[in-house]
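Escalated from tier 1: carboxymethyl coenzyme *A holo job.
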Amino acid sequence: MPDTITITDNRTGKQYELPIQDGAIKAMDLRKIKVAEDDFGLMTYDPAYQNTAACKSAITYIDGDKGVLLYRGYPIEQLAEGSTYLETAYLIMFGELPSASQLDAWHREITLHTMLHENIKQFMEGFNYDAHPMGVFLSTVGALSTFYPDAKQIFNQELRRLQMVRLVAKTPTIAGYAFRHLTGRFYVRPDNELSFTGNFLNMLFRMTEVKYKVNPVLERALDVLFILHADHEQNCSTSAMRGIGSSHVDPYSALAGAAAALYGPLHGGANEAVLKMLLEIGSIANVPAFIKRVKGGEGRLMGFGHRVYKSYDPRAKIIKQTADKVFEQTGRNPLLEIALELERIALQDEYFISRKLYPNVDFYSGLIYQAMGFPVEMFPVLFAIPRTAGWIAQWEEMLVDPEQKIARPRQIYTGAAPRDYVAMERRGKSPVTSSAGS
Ligand code: CMC
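Tier 2 regenerated the structure:
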C-alpha cells in the first residue's frame, strides 16, 4: 500500500488523501484543498526554503545529523584521500569515475581551454586598481557569455558540454588575472605543462622566473580544498544557478549569478569573514569576551553553524588535517591559536551546543589560504573555482529534468487593498498614507 497522509480541512470538514513519495508530499497536491471551487487552493509558506525540496538530484548527498557528505555516492573523505580535483569534477559532472584513458582525455580537454581571449584581459584591465577579485571574477564570468554566443544553444548536448569544459578550464585563469590585477602585477598566462592546481599557483605567484616551480605539498593541499568545495547540493549559490538557468539563459550568465550569491558573508564570503574576525579578536585572551558578545546577539561566530549540518562538518575535519601539512611548509599561522581556542570554548558552551553549532568548511580554510600567501579578498574566489563543477553539473541536471520549469515561487501578499489613484493636486501637503496590511 502506498504511503499517504490524510488531511482534514476543518473549514469544510472535507478529507484529502495525499501520496507521500521520497519523504515528501507534492506541494501542488495541496492546491486541491479549497473552501470553494474558485478558491486558489492551499499553499505552503516557507521563507528561505527551509523545508522545501525544489528538485530531485543524483549528484550530492548530505546527512546533516551524521556529518556525511557523498559525491555521486563516494564519501568525501575517500575522495580527499585518493582523488584529484579534476577527477572529482569529472565524477560530479558525468556521474562516474573516469577510466585512465577518459581521465587523460579530460585533462587534455581542460588544458586546451585554459586560455582567455585577449579582449577579456583588456576588459579586466578596466577595473579599478583595488577592485575586489570576487567582483571582478563574477563580472568577467558573465562577460564570457558575449564571447561565446554558441552558449545560448543550451539544448545542444555537444555545445553544452563545450561550455562546461570552458567554464572549468577558464575560471582559474580569470581568478589568476583578478589576483594579479589586485596586486598590480603582470598577468600570467596558463602553463599547460602543470597540473590544474599547479598551473593556478603559477598564474598567481610566478614572478621573474622562466618556469614556475610548484611546491608539491601546497599543490596537493589546494587540490584537496578544491575537492571539498566542488559541490554541496542545494545551497544558496547552487539554487541561484538553477533558478537563473531555469529561464534558459546561457550558463555564463547563470554562473555569474551563482558566483554573486556565493560572494555574500553568510555563504562563500564566510572564510574571508572568519579571517577578519580572528584578526579583530587579536589574541587568545580576548576569546571569552568575544564569545560573550556573540551570545549576547552582537554578531556571529563566523565559520560556525550550517543550515544542513547539525554536527561537525566533515569537510572541516579534513581541512584541519590539511592545515597541519601546509603549516609544516609555511610555518604556523599565528591566528590558528585563536581559532583553536574559539572552537574549544564554543564546543563546550551551552549556547552553541543547544543550537548544534559546529565549525563549518570556512572555519579553517582561510587560515590555510592565508598561510599559502593568498590575501583574504581571494578567499571567495578560491571557493568559486571548484564550485564551478558543482554549479554546472546541477545546471545541466535541471535542464534535462522533465519535471523542471522556470523557477517562480508564490507569495503571500501583505500590501494595500485595491484603491484609486490620487491625482497630485488632490493629495494635499501630508504624504498619502498606505493602508498596508489591510
Ligand atoms: N554564531 C552565533 N549564533 C549563531 C550562528 C553563529 N555562527 N549561526 C547560527 N546561530 C544562532 C542563531 O542566532 C539562531 O539563534 P536563535 O535560535 O537564538 O535565534 C540559531 O543559531 C539558528 O540560526 P539560524 O540563523 O536560524 O540558522 P540558519 O540555518 O538560517 O543559518 C548559517 C545557517 C550558516 C547562515 C548560520 O549558521 C551563520 O550565519 N553562520 C555564520 C556564517 C558562516 O559561517 N557561513 C558559512 C556556511 S558553510 C559554507 C557555505 O555555505 O558557504
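The chain is about 50% helix and 5% strand.
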